[in-house]
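Researcher: Good morning. I'm working through a list of sequences from a screen, and I'd like to move beyond sequence-only analysis. For each chain I'm collecting a predicted structure so we can compare shapes side by side. This is the next one on the list. No need for commentary yet; just the structure.
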Amino acid sequence: MKTTTTRAFPCVGLLTVGALLLTACGSSDGGGSGQAAGAGTFEGRGPITFVAGKDTTGAIQPMLDRWNKLHPKEKVTFIQLPTDADAQRQQMIQNAETKSDAYTVLSLDVVWTSEFAAHQWIDRLPEQRFPLDKMLKPVVETARYRDGLYAVPASSDGGMLYYRTDLLKKAGITKPPTTWAELKADCAKVKKLPEAQGMSCYAGQFQKYEGLTVNFAEAVNSAGGVITDANGKPDVDTAQAREGLDFLVDSVKDGTIPKEGITYLEEDGRQAFQSGKLVFHRNWPYVYSLAGKSDIKGKYSVAPLPGLNGPGSSSLGGHNLALSSFAKNKATALDFMKFFSSEENTATFLKEASLAPPYASLYDDKALVEQYPYLPVLKESILRAVPRPRVVQYGDVTSAVQREAYAALTGSKSIAQALKDLQEALQKSTGQ
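Model: Good morning. Structure tokens for this chain:
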């Protein structure tokens, strides 16, 4: 899940009007399973809002225009929040705490589901209204809290390693790296090429925001460690976690990650890779289509993230649609959520913005794989992905991760001290 909503949802131009009507028009009953923890039944029709991070692709509004044309009395207004995921979360929480009806359908980062559901900021949804059985199981699990469904998967996300195929080939490298050591060795060979003068080796998302939590988690998981165990108990002050954080810190020290790399969000890294400043880049699938429109078109590919001793583990990303407990016109909202997350629409999202769809069948479609050869890598990334800590106190947990990981990256704390302090902070936040 790209950690910001720059992974926007494109329009549904490939769908027939008939298909749109089928996906958009469901029943508006508010049956027993549809009763919310802070709301009544799903009633009311009329205008609603869709709240997400800033759409940097320009694709969401055309999709909303299609809905609005079909539903002139139930129009959707797009409320764009900042691109930074932490700022998005904060604004959504502020709206919920005031019990405002300004926000209707929320595009939530997958790790926010437990927090928003536990605080009764979003409604429990009627499962029978959505084709969950057709979706990848790890993706559906991100939309659950305890025994209920509190969101609907709209997109998934798995981190991938983008790399310059032309430069690796010219350096005599026949396949992408599978370990961190191979990545550094391959980059050293590439940087000897005249074409690679001035290039840096690698970047991810290392600014002090949600992206750093993602990248830190991937490094720890890819070294065999965890941040919290399956029960949410912190277990980050370990030898495995130290090896993961050491890779990041050592890469900053030895120049594998450029100095400016610790300021990068998703878009900063994407632009650096596309402009020829990076040999390798960790990012989400949305980058694939955008890079194909840049100067490196035909000169890049993707591979699984490398790890300590072999392929690593991505953090499980993506965005789910949730319904604000304080919203009006909830019958309209449910229909819009079904429309937005339909298999037909997510196929279009894949084609137009390289978004990872929640539906399993799309990854096995031969025609799609031929057109989008990265799909097998993306599916592997999602199935191998490890969720970030699924805890109610996620805001406190991610803030602690960002603070301590950034302190280690910038050298203000040793790796050992940062992990010790992180373990203590997580124990306090989770009560475990």
